[in-house]
Specification:
The protein contains 2 helices and 9 strands, in the order E-H-H-E-E-E-E-E-E-E-E. The chain is α+β, with helices and mostly antiparallel strands. It has one domain (22-210): q2cbj1_9rhob like domain (Jelly Rolls), CATH 2.60.120.620. It has a 5-stranded antiparallel β-sheet. A 4-stranded antiparallel β-sheet has the order 3-8-5-6, with no helix packed on it. The chain is globular and about 65 Å long. The N and C termini lie close together (10 Å). The relative contact order is 0.25. The model has no long low-confidence stretch (mean pLDDT 90).
């Protein structure tokens, strides 16, 4: 990022190396989600390792109408993300997606998504955790957490400094779409409800062009 010369008088502030995060409630999700849930649960019965075997296929290549709708929504979200990031040239990408069915007690360890530009998740069903049996005070059932990608950046932070909290935790709702840089480490807290948590995660993999090389 290049900024102009410093102006006389008033101090000039620049937020360096921000991590852009996008959230969106998809219109039409109330109609699409029951159809998507039926499709994903059927796939889950047929493939025991569906949630962890994410590289074996791409859920977005199917011609199922609800998945075509979701793919179009994700593509639009990528365009909105790129515009907000200041990218003013054409991008070409492939969405590589997989479904997640988290039964009671299921969770995802801390990880990121190598070999992609962006990663995202769309939430089809997020069960209410309020009546779940919780035996530890540090559990955050149903939530997803993202962590500061700069190691030890908060070591010398002081009260009310925006750098002090290394964790950004969200409780998603059915119909939410999240999009973030693929390098960002995140984890999914346990589902402690009796009903499954259902989502579709995806990577945005760029089709390489020399235009992407930073100047």
């Amino acid at each position: 990022m290049t900024t102009g010369p410093v102006k006389d008088g008033a101090p000039q502030f620049t937020q360096l190396w921000p991590t852009q995060f996008m959230s969106l409630r998809l219109p039409g999700n109330e109609t699409a989600n029951p159809v998507l849930a039926d499709f994903v649960l059927t796939q889950n019965i047929q493939n025991d390792d569906m949630t962890v075997d994410y590289k074996s296929g791409n859920i977005f290549v199917t011609d199922h109408p609800a998945l075509i709708w979701l793919r179009q929504c994700c593509d639009r979200a990528v365009l909105d993300y790129a515009r907000e990031a200041g990218i003013d040239y054409d991008l070409e990408w492939v969405l590589q997606g997989w479904a997640n069915v988290n039964m009671k007690g299921d969770y995802h360890n801390l990880h990121n998504h190598p070999h992609a530009w962006l990663s995202g998740t769309y939430y089809i069903s997020v069960p209410d955790q309020s009546d779940a049996d919780i035996f530890r005070s540090d559990l955050n059932p149903g939530a997803i957490s993202f962590f500061d990608p700069r190691p030890q950046a908060n070591m010398n932070a002081i009260c009310n400094d925006g750098q002090v909290d290394p964790e950004h935790r969200l409780m998603p709702t059915a119909g939410d779409l999240f999009l973030w840089p693929a390098f960002l480490h995140h984890l999914v807290h346990p589902n402690m409800a009796d009903l499954p948590r259902i989502s579709i995660s995806f990577n945005v993999v760029l089709k390489w062009k020399n235009d992407y090389i930073p100047h």
